[in-house]
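Subject — a protein and its fold

Tokens — whole-number codes for backbone shape
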Amino acid sequence: MGIISWIVFGLIAGVIAKLIMPGKDPGGMIITSLIGIAGGVLGGGISTWLGYGDVEGFDLRSFATAIGGALILLFGYRKIRGA
């Protein structure tokens, strides 16, 4: 269930990241959702690597990690694409 939960978290995190960082993104909502999924997986991997525990279901800490990963990737995407 670990990777599936991070994909679902990431999808939701992409939407929340878009709400936190409003603006015109190149690619629109689909790209933002994909960035959110990648950010959720990235955030989950980093938190597991740092020893915060495995991904086993929903909790507030894992959700915040997914949102943080999505925000980082969305920020980087905007800088690269010049938005």
